[in-house]
Amino acid sequence: MNKPKKQHYVPQTYLKNFGCGSKKANIFVYSKSNRKVFPAEIKNIAAEKDFYTVNSIDEKYYWENYYATIVEPELGVLLKKIRQACENVLIQNNSVIISQDEKVILSIHLMLQLFRGQKVRKYMSNYYYEHLPELLSDIKHHFILSEKCNNYLDGFNGEFYFKETAMGSALNIDNLKTCVEALMQYSFLFCVSKKEKCFLTSDSPVNFVNSRTNKCVLFKEGLRNNTTFIYFPISSNIILIAINPTHLFNLHIKDCSVELIEAADNQRFITNCNRIQLEGSCDFLYFENIELIKTVLE
């Protein structure tokens, strides 16, 4: 089994859709924290040392290898098919480009990307460590423990336990099934700019957005909220918008279809999509065209 140290929480196979250069191996990066733009190699971004490694189990690289060998190759194949269909010179508005079975697969990957990412990890970590002292106190209060056990609890920080729990939660079959069943009720619309590279992505590319306030706050906008839309950039010229089944706009959408747009005529929409990525990101935006960031920060 491979023993990778640098582990990506956003797949390289996905980020290459926003890459530049002949091999799409490079990308531009913007950091919210220091407000700087810089070029980088895709292999060096959206990654953290031992992000998925759990040293307390025998197969400590299990989750990293699972994502690298099973999840990401399947995602790469599906995104390639979507790109090829959207970039076909003969594609027309309202053309359906993926089947319902492929919509299921894409829905699974949307949830996996959300749950496996840095943003959810930070949210879970903050919650875990905020409530850990109370939990340990309750254990001491309700059970008669030996001095050894009390000393163990006094020194317990649960880092490995937390990571193992977080990894298991991201791949929980029951949770994924519930989310996918809800997502299948949404209409998937692929907005495609055929002439210009106008979309960017981030270190948290799947964003749930309140269609009334246009705000995206993690876990505030649920799949069953009637105001929730989901935004997921697929490449520099394609973005997926999942439209809530109760929204009036949903009545005019053919599920899994294409909407061709001209950047010049849809700049407000494009800028809004990119600003959602800015708001929803932990820190970094990723993009192919360096001019894009100027419109987002204006």
Produce the secondary structure layout.
Elements: E1 6-8, H1 12-15, E2 26-31, E3 36-41, E4 47-49, H2 62-86, H3 100-116, H4 118-142, H5 147-154, H6 159-170, H7 173-183, E5 187-193, E6 201-202, E7 207-210, E8 228-235, E9 238-243, E10 257-261, H8 267-280, E11 284-287, H9 292-297
Q: What does this protein structure show overall?
A:
The chain has a domain at 8-98 and 185-297. 41% of the residues lie in helices and 18% in strands. It contains 9 helices and 11 strands. The strands form 3 sheets. It has a 5-stranded mixed beta sheet with strand order 7-8-9-5-10, with helices on both faces. Strands 3-2-11-6 form a 4-stranded antiparallel beta sheet, with helices on one face. Strands 1-4 form a two-stranded antiparallel ribbon. α3 packs antiparallel against α6 and α3 (100-116) packs across α7.
List keywords for this structure.
41% helix; 4-stranded antiparallel sheet; 298 residues; 5-stranded mixed sheet; 11 strands; single chain; alpha+beta
What is the ordering of alpha helices and beta strands?
EHEEEHHHHHHEEEEEEHEH
Topology, number of strands: 11
Which structural class matches the secondary elements?
Answer: alpha+beta
How far apart the termini lie comes to: 47 Å
Strand content: 15-25%
| Overall radius of gyration | 21 Å
Biggest sheet, in brief? 5 strands, mixed
Strand order of the largest sheet: 7-8-9-5-10
Instruction: State the helicity in percent bands.
Output: 40-55%
Shape: globular
- The number of helical segments is 9
Mean pLDDT over the full residue set: 89
Can you tell me the residue ranges where pLDDT is under 50 for at least 5 consecutive residues? none
